[in-house]
Amino acid sequence: MKTTTKVGVIALCTSLFLGLAVFGVNITFVTKPQAVSAITSGTTACSQSTSPLKSLAGLNSITITEKTGINNTPTYNPTSSSLNFGTSDLNTTASEHYDFYYSDADGTANPNGAYISSKMHRDVSMANAQSGNNIDSLKLTFNTGNPVYADLIASYQLGASVSSVSSAALPQGLGSPDGVVTTAGDQDSRVTFGFCAAFNTTTYQCSDGLDNDNDQATDYPNDFSCSSTTDNDETNPMAACQDGTDNDGDSLTDYPQDPGCTSKQDNSETNGTIACSSNSQCPASVLTGSATCSGNSVYQNRRSYVCDNPGTTNSACRAVDNNEFQNNCASNQTCSGAGVCTTTSNLTVSCYTNPNPVQTNQSMTFISNASGGTGNYVYSWAGACVGSSQNCSNSFGSSSTYTASLNVVSGSQSASANCSVIVNQQTTSANMTATVQVRNLSAGNLNWSNSVAAAPSDILQFNVVVRSNGNSVANNVTVRDMLPANLYYNNFLTIDGVSNSGSITGGVNIGNLSYNQAKTLVYQVQVAPSPNFAFGATTLVNAVTATSTDSYNNTATGNASVVVTKSSVAGATDVSTGLTDNIFIDSFFIPLMLALLGVWAWKSGLLNSFGFAGWVSAKKANFRDMAISRELDNKISQIKNRENQ
Questions:
Q1: How far apart are CA 108 and CA 636, in angstroms?
Q2: How far is residue 248's CA from residue 270's CA, in Å, rounded to a whole number?
Q3: Core-most of 33, 59, 410, 455, by most CB within 10 Å?
């Protein structure tokens, strides 16, 4: 390779210059425009612009508004690499190529600069070329929500198409966007912007988001040295655990050398109590509370302990509860209560039908019988009857044999059984009958008859026989005795000899009656008292009705009669007894005293002297008449009492 020395180059250039001069060619040197003073719209350069712009406290984003026909608003994170020099950040429709970067005031690229430069290159050879570098605004956005716009043109380099600073309209890039832009020129141009207002904002060390004293604590209240958010000194006073002094005289200084210190922000080097340094220094795990069942498994709470903040004065043993599996019950056992496995006997299941056989549309029941297991059963019917009760009822519309399947679960055991019912086609009706008889218990008459004699207040007993005379079943038969007036229901109801708590006057359901089946109901009735009847005989007819739910021949009625006789005294309704309800007249004591006084007077002869002998004889006759009258009164009273019983 051929090498040209610096001296040779100089000599060549000198010869070329002299030769051109000899031939009369004028040579003009075009020099680079000199920098002019920064335009600040009447302000001075930012005196605070010595710290990195990207490090401003609370700075969230940087937005640049460029307008070439439309607004272009690229937004950058303060630490974005796009704000480094030499990157292509924006290409417009007018073939403008922008590079936005951190710089010093003179436009020199500096990642820690306090300014932002807009450097543009534009090819002026294109048609209709205009002045480029069209900046409307630059905005800093902070987490406080208050934006700061560029307020200083620090320096510039005008492009080829601009001949004066006034033509460049550089101040149009300051402040908020208004649609009016800078025109710094084509080919290569640069404008450097400053943000004085951002650096004029007062920030304090205790609220600037920085660890100014490198003690692993930032701002108030995390840094011990900060007394408030407006404290501007994160270094003073120092906490005891970072002041370089052995404050507790244990020959150990500060955190982490002194075990009394939990951090650099700890203001006491005095050794605190360390509860634990590991889990092994905490209590052993124990089972607590009662065991429980989950399915057929036994669980119980286990309490364990873990050491929080081990090896520090803030350490503590913390309880942790966990429901822990203990064991499974065996297949023939059931878990119940407080996790107790109870051995159960084998589960057995059977079933049968009632009635069987039946006719079409006749109700019947599949009846289960379960034993063993836990004593608690879950039933499931399928097939000819579906249900989950102990028994399952159904009816069938056509003749056939129907089978139901039963499955029973008790604890962990299950068992099954099948039962069937024969359904015959219905041919005739039930044709119920009701026969009613009565007897008088008060009279001691134990023979049943269709009619009975009675007196007021007598106790009677009725016997009702309900029968299904056909070859069909009478379903859901209800027997009811409304009882006529002056006959009162007196309980003591039995059905086929079994005591029943129902009321015959309200109706008693005796179930179904199969072919030629009969059921007997016996109950007591009392006759009303004597005042309810007129003298003589009164006939009471008691009708009893039996009704089934069948739609054919579903009612039967029977009756019996009671003849009630009320007796009276012939021709006597009120007989005088001689009593007047006057104490002086009706009193026995006063007449007795007068009689004794008279006897004494008579015996003493006193009355003879007054002529009373004849008067006394007359009185004796009167006394005899009165005695006879009293005896008659007693007879009449006995007759009345007997009639009222």
A1: 151
A2: 6
A3: 410
List the structure tokens of 472: 């069909």
Q: How many CB atoms lie within 10 A of CB 443?
A: 14
Q: What is the C-alpha to C-alpha distance for residues 173 and 98, in angstroms, rounded to an integer?
A: 15
Sequence-distant (6+) residues with CB within 8 A of 504 are 479, 480, 481, 489, 493, 521, 523
CA distance 436 to 432: 14
CATH of 344-424, picked from 2.60.40.10, 2.40.170.20, 2.60.120.330, 3.40.50.150, is 2.60.40.10
Which band of pLDDT confidence, cut at 50, 70 and 90, is reported for residue 561?
very high
Q: What is the distance of C-alpha 107 from the center of its chain? A: 69
Confidence of residue 312 (pLDDT cuts 50, 70, 90): confident
Distance between CA atoms of residues 90 and 72, nearest Å: 8
The SS3 assignment for 463 reads: strand
Whole-number Å distance between alpha carbons of 146 and 269: 44
Going from the C-alpha of 602 to that of each of 61, 523, 591, the distances in angstroms are 153, 72, 16
Q: Tokens 């029943």 — which residue?
A: 500
Instruction: Retrieve residue 103's tokens.
Output: 């710089």
Distance CA 309, CA 276 (A): 8
Query: Binning pLDDT at 50, 70 and 90, where does residue 31 land?
Result: very low
633: which residues sit within 8 A by CB, 6+ positions away?
Answer: 575, 576, 577, 578
pLDDT digits (tens, 9 = 90+) for 190-223: 999 999 888 876 667 788 788 888 888 999 999 9
In terms of pTM, does the model score above 0.85? no
d(CA 555, CA 243): 111
CA distances from 553 to 398, 453, 546, 568 (A): 21, 34, 11, 48
Distance CA 201, CA 339 (A): 71
The pLDDT score that the predictor gives to residue 29 is 33
Are 209 and 57 within 8 A, CB to CB? yes
